[in-house]
Amino acid sequence: MTDVTRDNTIQNGTTGPGTTRRRVGIGDLAGARVLVLGAGVSGPGAVRILHALGAEPVVADSRPEAVELLRGALPDGVTCTGVGLDRAAELLVDTGPGRVDLVVTSPGWRPDSPLLRTAAEAGLELWGDVELAWRADAAGMFGPPRTWLAVTGTNGKTTTTSMLEAICLEAGMAVRACGNIGLPVTEVLLAEPRVEVLAAELSSFQLHWAPGCRPDVGVVLNVAEDHLDWHGSMEAYAAAKAQVLTGRVAVAGAEDEIASRLLAAAPAPRRIGVRLGAPGAGEFGVIDGVLTARIGDQEGDDDEVALLPAVDVRPPGPAGVLDALAAAAVAMSVGAQAEHVAAALRGFTVAAHRAELVDTVDEVRYVDDSKATNPHAARTSLLAGGKMVWLAGGLLKGADVDPLVAEVSHLLRGVVLIGRDRGRIAEALSRHAPGVPVVELASGDDDGAAAPDEPQQTMDRAVAEAARMATGGDTVLLAPAAASMDMFTDYGHRGRSFALAVGRVAGR
Question: Among 251-255, 267-271, 349-353, 471-475, where is mean pLDDT lowest?
Answer without folding.
Answer: 349-353
